[in-house]
Amino acid sequence: MSKVILVVDDSASIRQVVGMALRGAGYTVVEASDGRDALSKLDGQKINLVISDVNMPNMDGITFVKEMKQKPNYKFTPVIMLTTEGADDKKREGQAAGAKAWIVKPFRPEQMLQAVSMLIQ
User: Fold this and answer.
1) Which residues carry this modification: 4-aspartylphosphate (predicted)?
2) In 3D, which of 9, 17, 27 has the Cα closest to residue 116?
3) What residue spans of the chain are helical by DSSP H?
4) How many CB atoms neighbour CB 100 within 10 A?
């Protein structure tokens, strides 16, 4: 059974790059275009990890993570923030919301896969 990763980003090209890297490493990928879309995908299915952008329309990544952590099934789901946002205060805000790792774009797929393999059980 392959592990399921939810990729949340308003950029289709980023979702594609991240999705290709993850699928190539044997993961199953579920895609969402923003936080609100991502919440609709949290319908009780097992999600082993979330990779989310920070700045998105409708619902940003940090709000999404806070909302996700309110759901009993996803309280302990690890989150990696993948973003152009490198500011320390944003990182602290992300960590406070529950993000376990912070990867700044542009990123190397190997770097992301390394973070994923460290966080995924």
Assistant:
1) 53
2) 27
3) 12-24, 35-41, 61-69, 88-97, 109-119
4) 16
List b or e across 38-50, with b for residues whose CB sees 16 or more CB atoms inside 10 angstroms: bbeebeeeebbbb
CATH topology of domain 4-119: Rossmann fold (3.40.50)
Q: What is the pTM of this model?
A: 0.96
Contact 81, 94 (CB under 8 A): yes
Burial of 91 (0-12, 13-18, 19+ CB in 10 A): middle
The token pair that represents 22 in the structure block: 């993850």
- Residue 32, beta-bridge partner list: 8
**What backbone phi and psi angles, to 5 degrees, belong to 60?**
-75, 170
Question: Domain extents for the chain?
Answer: 4-119
